[in-house]
Amino acid sequence: MRVLLLAYGSRGDIEPMVALAMELRAVGVDVQMCAPPDFAELLDGAGLPLVPLGRSIREMATEAMTGTKPVSAESLPQRAAEMFAATYDSVAAVAEGCAAVVATGLPPAAAAARAVAEMLGVPYTYVAYFPTYLPSPHHPPFELPGRPFPPDVTDNRVLWDLDVENVNVLFGTGLDAHRASAGLPPVDNFRDYFLTDHPWLAADPALAPWQEPADVDVLQTGAWIRPDDRPLPADLEAFLNAGAPPVYVGFGSMPLRDALDVTRAAVEAVRAQGRRVLLSRGWADLALTDGQDDCFAVGEVNQQALFRRVAAVVHHGGAGTTTTAARAGAPQVLVPQMADQPYWAARVAGLGIGAAHDGPTPTTESLSAALTTALTAGTRARATAVAGTIRTDGATMAAKLLLDMISGERPPASA
């Protein structure tokens, strides 16, 4: 049996799919991964064959965040159509013989994955990593570029209806053009086409619960976590052992418009708390601001091991980093930039396991204030307590559900 997994997004979109792939391979299922070319080394290390999709997601994110090639309502339909067409061609070329397709990430790519599954007549499932991506009366949708919601509309169901219109306008062109060429009718609701009415939610129920009743039949599996037993580098071990636990500062696969200013503010804020600083370079290319020995910079490391040994984790608020820090019992300060990150910031603050920074650009003063909250004994105790409630079997459950769906024990999402 062979399954195709597609993730068109950043590192936080890829890692959970790798966790699912490993669970599937453990029970004898072959896996074909489709993802941006940025993650060839990551997937090669996991022994997963990669079909690269499109251009570098890091380049695209950097262009959008720095304003060199911003995403706009005018440019998005054409870019989405191009992404759909390229993704469809890449996936269709390797999908023959696959028993199911699982997708996550950017809507045009996910829609292309479903179109391939439709062509093959096999089950298709979309997975989200946070609840607010999915339609619900309990939260509003995201605003899309150039398509603001009317300020006087506050009913969530009305907003989700408006979201359907916006998504159709911005993303539907490529799908409908493909369907027209195949002699198929257009899709009335692009959003529901790629999400389906039975999406999966790969998020921990304690950190990100799905609220019922809702408008879609969501299956929450728990977060998909890939076990990581890599040792920490020797120089990092030496830094950790040379003093009190440092504060980790990193923004993962999130470019920053003013990375140098953010780094300076973070270093000064951490030092104001009497703590050492551990910088993660990431896609923002954070770098040491001076030669003092209370700061250390690292690249790609085992965060599961590292976060157990830090005083706090300052980060952008991606689903993966938030979950990893929560599992480690590390207090957090979230500086959300976009998408799901404000959601995770609110959850961390609400659970009492850290602080949410107000806005995407921290100053020394604002970040120091957030750290003051995160570094209290009470926040540490609460973070430790919540860590004990987080499940680690999400990918195992998802693998079993997928195999049940293939065998016909559960109706496929694309039915």
Explain what the structure shows.
The mean pLDDT is 95. The protein folds into two domains: 2-225 and 392-407, Glycogen Phosphorylase B (Rossmann fold), CATH 3.40.50; 234-387, Glycogen Phosphorylase B (Rossmann fold). By secondary structure, the protein is an alpha/beta fold. Helix 4 packs across helix 6 and helix 5 packs across helix 6 (156-181). The protein is built from 15 helices and 13 strands. Strands 3-2-1-4-5-6-7 form a seven-stranded parallel beta sheet, with helices on both faces. It has a six-stranded parallel beta sheet with strand order 10-9-8-11-12-13, with helices on both faces. The protein is 43% helix and 13% strand.
Please give the largest β-sheet.
Answer: 7 strands, parallel
Could you state the order of secondary-structure elements as H and E? EHEHEHHEHEHHEEHEHEEHEHEHEHHH
Count of DSSP-assigned helices? 15
Give the CATH architecture of the largest domain.
Answer: 3-Layer(aba) Sandwich
How many strands in all?
13
- Bin the helical content: 40-55%
Estimate what percentage of residues fall within beta strands: 5-15%
Distance between the termini: 20 Å
Structural class: alpha/beta
Poorly predicted runs of 5 or more residues: none
What is the top-level CATH class of the largest domain? Alpha Beta
CATH homologous superfamily annotation of the largest domain:
Glycogen Phosphorylase B
Instruction: Look up the CATH topology of the largest domain.
Output: Rossmann fold
| Radius of gyration, in angstroms, nearest whole number | 21 Å
* Overall spatial form: globular
**Sheet with most strands: strand arrangement:** 3-2-1-4-5-6-7
The overall number of domains is 2
